[in-house]
Amino acid sequence: MKRNRRQSTIINNFFTLASIIMITITLVIYMKYIQVEEPSPDSKDEYMKKEKVTPLECEDETSKSKLFNQKLLNKSLEALRKGYYKLDGGHVKALSSKSIIEEFISISQANEYFTKAIKIPAKKDIQKFLTINYEIIETDKDKKIDLKKENKFKSGTIRTSFRANAIEIFIFSKDFKFYDKNEIQSIIDCTIKVYKNNAKKYK
């Protein structure tokens, strides 16, 4: 009986050793010769690496932009091209000094500048659309300027938020130095160009 047990133990040990060797050889071959296929571009989600965005000439040290959702931004551009957008503008008046921003430029005139920059009039009676929310923010002239924060002379800022179904997807702001309508129009034109420039396709 003892002899049979010894033979059985030897056979079991042999098969165990053989199994370990086979598994090791299989792993070595897999790691050396078999490459893991990367997911296709179509299977990647909104966190995919996107193309590098090159700043435009109209962007300067007073310009600021922030992207929240690249996937929605790309889709919203198609809506803009079809005229599926609405403009929602307003003034933010100075509080500590006399405000003249409403007299300087009306919201209807600013809307005209946006429509001219987009080059497509907004359609009416549409259920789903891109909301272009902008604020013409007037600088308080009596407010003390902190030179340490590198605040420079400006009359105000135009801040624009692009939203899809109330979800903010992209913002852009730029300062204007003077109460000059040509400068305002130039900033609005730059805003639309920067928005389009950031709607890049994924790699």
Walk me through this protein's architecture:
- There is one protein chain.
- With 203 residues, the chain is α+β, with helices and mostly antiparallel strands.
- Helices cover 38% and strands 20% of the residues.
- The chain has five helices and five strands; from the N terminus they run αβαβααβββα.
- A five-stranded mixed β-sheet has the order 1-5-4-3-2, with helices on one face.
- It is elongated and about 100 Å long.
- 19% of the residues are buried.
Write the layout of secondary structure elements.
Blueprint: H1 2-33, E1 64-67, H2 70-81, E2 85-92, H3 101-104, H4 107-118, E3 130-138, E4 156-164, E5 167-176, H5 181-198
Parallel strand pairs: 2-3
Antiparallel strand pairs: 1-5, 3-4, 4-5
Helix pairs in contact: 4-5
